[in-house]
Amino acid sequence: MVDVSAVTPLLEEYAAIEAQLADPVTHSDPVVLKRLNKRYAALSPTIAAFREWQEADGDVGAATEMAAEDASFAEELPTLRQRADEAAAELHRLLLPRDPDDDRDVILEVKAGEGGEESALFAGDLLRMYLRYAERRRWKAQLLEATESDLGGYKEARVAIQASGAAAPGDAPWARLKYEGGVHRVQRVPVTESQGRIHTSAAGVLVMPDVDDPGEVELDPHDLKIDVFRSSGPGGQSVNTTDSAVRITHLPTGVVVSCQNEKSQLQNKESALRVLRSRLHQMAVEEAEAEASAQRRSQVRTVDRSERIRTYNFPENRVADHRTGYKSYNLDQVLDGDLDPVVQSAVDADEAARMAALGGGDQ
What we know:
Blueprint: H1 4-21, H2 30-67, H3 71-94, E1 106-112, H4 116-136, E2 140-148, E3 154-162, H5 173-177, E4 182-188, E5 199-209, E6 224-229, E7 245-250, E8 255-259, H6 265-291, E9 308-313, E10 318-321, E11 327-328, H7 331-335, H8 340-357
Parallel strand pairs: 4-9
Antiparallel strand pairs: 1-3, 1-5, 2-3, 4-5, 6-7, 7-8, 9-10, 10-11
Helix pairs in contact: 1-2, 2-3
């Protein structure tokens, strides 16, 4: 049974946004327009599902009344009831409590872990995997910061991934990539191994919602320590003759962000501030999640960045996700960006856990 009272405020918000989007004044403010379009896109499937259920439920009611006079309507009732039940189930799924950041873009960081050059090479593989995945989903990717290793891997890299236009619920970068945070383990014969032995190494992935509106996370200039320095490449050699790289330290939290990939000091500063806002936002979310009850927290995504979430086994061409039990033998395709089935296993497990927390949807 559908709880109409849960939909009513969404209907009112949807109508209000429609009115704002029809107002020419709204289109003069790109920040407001982007926010409204995102919210409108997020609400649209729920509103459509509610209207679908209303129509299906109305058909059941009408057929029930007329069945007493016309047997043909009685014959249609099972089909009509099934359609209404399916519409109600879809609406209930869409009404599940959502991550408020699900409509956001992301900033994703990959860092080499233990394993020296092999770990850095694997970090490079992961970075390329996410870039190819973004390409497959027609997202925009911008490399914000990268420190290469001597053999062409990455000691660390940071990339901003943005949806092209307003994404449907569940399709925005954060809604898909938030499950990627944690330790990724690789098992293979390193290029540096002369004996042909399989080694295990790891790289870490950190995913943060991209807080692109400066007004969302207030930064007091007195809380920031800003240093400039000369950009450097692999092995520490200078790649820029001016002090264009920027390092920002947020004194209250100790968070440090460096950016050197842009050509000017101003651009690097803006990129660093963008990353800093995202990190502070994510820290606040993680603190809130840590205080929440076990039932209310996601059963899949964890705030523990040290958790081993996935293993990439090259000799067996196997990918295994340790949280969801997902396993496939197409590692080469996954590393080429065919990541959706792996991600979907986490999305499905998370959704199932949230439905179970609400009693399976029996209302």
